[in-house]
Every structure is written in C-alpha cells, then in structure tokens.
Amino acid sequence: MANLEAFLRTDGSGPYSYTRNSTLKFFTSLSPERTYFALGFPGSFDGCLFLSSSLHFVHFSYTNLQWLSKVQKEVEDKKSPAWNKGRIFYLNSSHKVVKSYEAQYFKDMEKFLNARAQEIVHGGLMAIIVPACPNGTPHFEVFINKAIELLGCCLMGMAKKGKTSE
C-alpha cells in the first residue's frame, strides 16, 4: 500500500488558522493501517513554499486565494476617492474601490502563480478551485460576495455597539 505525504503551510492566524484543526480531523479519519507523513511550517502562501521543481501536483482552493496580502492604503484613507467606509469588501462600493481591490488581487495572484511555477516539476499539474460566474454578472449577485457582505454588516453592527472598532 502506498504512503501518503502531505505538506501544509499556514501562518497560524487569521484566515489560515483553520488549517491546524481541519488537518487534525483529516488525519484522524484515515485508516490506521497505512503510513502517513505530514509536514507543516509557518508562512504565507504568496512566496515560495517548497524547493524548486519539487512538486508533481499542487491543489489550492479559493479559501486560500481569496484573501489579499494587505489592505490597500487608499481604501482606508478617508480623503481618498477609494475610501471604503463601513465595508470589509468591495461589494456595492464605488468603481475606484473595486479597482483598488482588483489591482492588489492581481499583484498577489502574480506572486502566487510565479512561486508555484518555480516549485512544480516540468510536466507537473496544478488545480485551482475558484468560484466563478459568467462575464457580465454583477458582483452583488455572486453568492460568496453576499456572504462576505453579511459578515461586514455583522462587524459594522458590532462596531456601532462598541464591541469593536470600525
């Protein structure tokens, strides 16, 4: 019976902290009659994670790729036309806000894809699972965007009650 080898990377906080718990659940659900190897180490996904030409197959899901590496300065600047007052996301925001988020996402994805290109062997494969919608579909009609907007409303409600800051 073949061995299973898994490499995991997380910074241990923020949106990536779930990795620790989900990994434990995964490995405890496997058959005890097999040998399993897992390696976890801290860091961010947007730089190189593994040795050059060391991976034959890579899988990432949108849960890893939907987070921006940083908040854009213009989105937080009250004097900027791209200020995103009261929102944690770009849904229902001005065109300048959307463009600011888009520019940061493109930078992050370029870094991500360049790093993976170095790590994958010639002829290797990468699967990226991301939600998509047909061209022309307004952002406010996409389910994941509605879910994030709901989270933003909850956080703003907490801010108004003084439980957190805006």
UniProtKB/TrEMBL annotation:
Recorded superkingdom: Eukaryota
One MF term in the entry's GO annotations: methyltransferase activity
One Pfam match: Methyltransf_7
Biological-process GO terms, alphabetical: methylation
Keyword line: Methyltransferase, Transferase
Keyword Methyltransferase: yes
Protein name, UniProt field: Probable S-adenosylmethionine-dependent methyltransferase At5g38100
